[in-house]
Give the backbone structure.
Amino acid sequence: MSAPTAPTETPAAPAAPVAAPAPASVQSSTPLKSGPIDDDDVNHWKDRFNDVLSRPGEHVNSKSPAGALSWATHLFDCFKPIDLCLITCCVPCVTFGKTHHRVNKNGNMDGYEPINTSCLLFCGSSCCALHWIPASMQRAAIRAKYNLEGNCIEDIAKSFCCACCNLIQLEKETEHREALLRNGSSEQYKSDNGMVYPGAN
């Protein structure tokens, strides 16, 4: 009889390589935007309203200083460009927010988004038929920045009675004035007296 054959051992399978731990994700240092609400804009409008409410008589009777410049655009020249006319007639809050961004944030419109804090403010005030309040405040701020002629009563009347024409004029005027600034013109700063309030002298 033949000798019994020793059982053959099956070699063990090699151990699977251990996967290296995934690198920790690097957190971006750029702050994430929380939507269309901008804290700087909220504070801007809060300060503006507080200023007007703290001295309403002075604001109502205020006017541009002597030597203020004439407007380069006209109130009723509102049908051109046609795209601005259509946008303002359909969604006036967008034009309002666009002008606010150009005047208060960046004249080149860097970082502009159509739906922003000022746009929502105008939209909300329009639901209560109070759109003329932020519009007249914006017109007064534009007069002060670019040294344009006018007074508070005119600002209110044009914002209330000719809402879309007023917004179109402000958008075109600020675009024109910012272009002058980029070209190195100091035309809008011929007078540095600022707004004239009654009893200030």
